[in-house]
């Protein structure tokens, strides 16, 4: 038995030795360093990381540049020019004197703040004009802005200033000997004469006044004027209105005696009265 047991013991040892030799030695698997990176991030870890990043963010405020206070500039006092100041002073005194002179001259003839017809007649006489119905007297009234033979202070002042004078004494020297020598002045006076010879709020001039003024402006020997007066004297011819009167000056000074340059077309700018006048002589 002993030897038999000994043989079994040896046989078991050889079997165990063979099993140990055939079984491979196992080693724990080593993880690759890249495998850790591929593992999913735990939500808790993610939140912690995010919180840490947010907590590290520093809120910054915009930097406002500091404005430098402007340095006060010391303004130099303008240099005075004694000569210029003296000239300015003299000019101002002269202007004041002129205003006073105009005021005094106006007050000589005014009544209730205006120069009335009686005062205008006296002033024209003092200016050396004997005939109040003359063209020279009409020029004075026109220049001083007379309306209904009345002159206010503003019109009086502007009239003197328009001829660069400051007194009636100086104004007297500005009155033209014959105002009609200048065609433009003559036309303005002709138009102004209508205003002076029409009653208040009236629109037509009396025939007698029209004839008198036509002779006064153009004389009694003007053929065109005499033809028109003949036509105007007809009972069928009405009194002249403002538009007809203002066109009459150009008609007399530009239209030929035979009416050859008178426009008879429908586009003519002449008032209808002149069409009738021309037709009456052509027929």
TrEMBL record:
Q: Name one GO cellular component term.
A: ubiquitin ligase complex
Q: Which InterPro entries match?
A: DCN-prot (IPR014764), DCN1-like_PONY (IPR042460), PONY_dom (IPR005176)
Q: Which PROSITE patterns match?
A: DCUN1
In this protein, which residues make up the domain named DCUN1? 94-282
Q: Which GO terms describe its biological process?
A: protein neddylation
Q: Which intervals carry biased composition (Basic and acidic residues)?
A: 76-96
Composition bias, kind Polar residues: at what positions? 32-54
Write one Gene Ontology MF term: cullin family protein binding
Q: Where is this region: Disordered?
A: 1-96
Domain of life according to the entry: Eukaryota
Instruction: Supply the Pfam families for this chain.
Output: Cullin_binding
Task of the protein: Neddylation of cullins play an essential role in the regulation of SCF-type complexes activity.
Q: What is this protein called?
A: Defective in cullin neddylation protein
Query: What organism does this protein naturally occur in?
Result: Entamoeba nuttalli (strain P19)
């Amino acid at each position: 038995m002993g030897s038999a047991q000994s043989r079994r013991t040896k046989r078991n040892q050889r079997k165990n030795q063979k099993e140990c030799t055939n079984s491979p030695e196992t080693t724990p698997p080593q993880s690759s360093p890249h495998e850790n990176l591929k593992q999913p991030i735990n939500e808790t870890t993610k939140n912690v990381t995010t919180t840490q990043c947010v907590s590290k963010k520093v809120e910054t405020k915009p930097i406002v540049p500091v404005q430098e206070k402007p340095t006060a500039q010391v303004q130099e006092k303008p240099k005075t020019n004694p000569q210029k100041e003296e000239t300015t002073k003299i000019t101002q005194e002269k202007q004041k004197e002129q205003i006073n002179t105009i005021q005094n001259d106006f007050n000589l003839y005014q009544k209730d703040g205006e120069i009335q017809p009686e005062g205008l007649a006296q002033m024209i006489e003092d200016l050396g004009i004997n005939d109040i119905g003359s063209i020279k007297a009409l020029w004075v009234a026109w220049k001083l802005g007379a309306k209904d033979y009345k002159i206010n202070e503003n019109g009086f002042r502007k009239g003197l200033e328009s001829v660069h004078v400051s007194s009636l004494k100086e104004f007297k020297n500005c009155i033209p000997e014959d105002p009609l020598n200048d065609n433009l002045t003559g036309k303005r006076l002709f138009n102004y004469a209508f205003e002076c010879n029409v009653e208040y709020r009236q629109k037509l001039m009396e025939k007698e006044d029209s004839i008198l003024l036509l002779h006064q402006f153009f004389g009694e020997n003007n053929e065109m004027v005499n033809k028109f007066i003949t036509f105007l004297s007809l009972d069928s011819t009405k009194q002249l209105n403002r538009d007809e009167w203002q066109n009459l000056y150009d008609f007399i000074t530009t239209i030929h005696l035979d009416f050859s340059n008178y426009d008879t077309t429908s586009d003519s700018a002449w008032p209808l009265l002149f069409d009738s006048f021309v037709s009456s002589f052509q027929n």
